[in-house]
Amino acid sequence: MSYLLVSNESTVELTGHLDVNGRLQLSHADGDLSDHSNALQAEDPGGTIRIKLNDFTDGSSTWTLNASHDGAVGPIAWNRGADHAYYDFSEYMSNFLEVKATANEGATEKEKIIDIKTKPEGSLPDEQ
Question: Is the pTM of this model over 0.90?
Answer without folding.
Answer: yes
